[in-house]
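Task: sequence design from structure.
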């Protein structure tokens, strides 16, 4: 099932009043994340920016609970047919919340200074473990540099498209002398 077919499949099964746009589907090697662009309550549009964001997050929480059984059913069907774990998220305006995503261990080597930062976060009660402290630092970086990360992701998408256009055929042997590079 390609992405368009999957979007159509989801739209046919989700309540029509829920979605403001086709679901966004992100496929990773170990997981598929489906982000639903949820219709914003009309009353939220009247709020100023400071009030709107928390209200949108509250609406996402309500819609999450209201669609839980259906999303679980759809996830089971997709997991059985596609062989991928399915995670969900919702977006209203600039607020996006992912839920039921997999957590996986990530191995890294940290020097003393970096471990001290993590240990300080643990000692301060910001996190329970070094692992949780590292996840906190990554989330804080992502929030602080959201715009930059978006630009990088966009550039990487362009690079992937350029790579896909390359039709590389391995040579049977080395190029003959005299072939210039550049």
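Answer:
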């Amino acid at each position: 099932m390609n992405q368009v077919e999957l979007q159509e499949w989801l739209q046919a099964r989700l309540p029509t009043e829920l979605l403001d746009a086709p679901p966004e589907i992100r496929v990773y090697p170990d997981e598929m994340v489906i982000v639903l662009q949820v219709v914003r309550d009309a009353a939220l549009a009247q709020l100023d920016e400071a009030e709107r964001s928390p209200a949108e997050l509250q609406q996402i929480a309500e819609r999450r609970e209201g669609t839980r059984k259906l999303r679980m059913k759809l996830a089971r069907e997709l997991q059985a047919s596609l062989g991928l774990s399915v995670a969900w998220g919702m977006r209203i305006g600039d607020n996006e919340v992912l839920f039921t995503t997999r957590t996986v261990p990530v191995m890294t080597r940290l020097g003393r200074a970096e471990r001290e930062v993590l240990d300080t976060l643990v000692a301060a009660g910001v996190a329970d473990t070094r692992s949780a402290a590292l996840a906190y630092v990554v989330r804080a970086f992502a929030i602080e540099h959201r715009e930059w990360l978006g630009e990088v992701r966009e550039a990487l998408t362009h690079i992937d498209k350029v790579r896909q256009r390359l039709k590389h055929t391995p040579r049977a042997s080395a190029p003959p002398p005299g072939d210039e590079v550049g």
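The radius of gyration is 22 Å.
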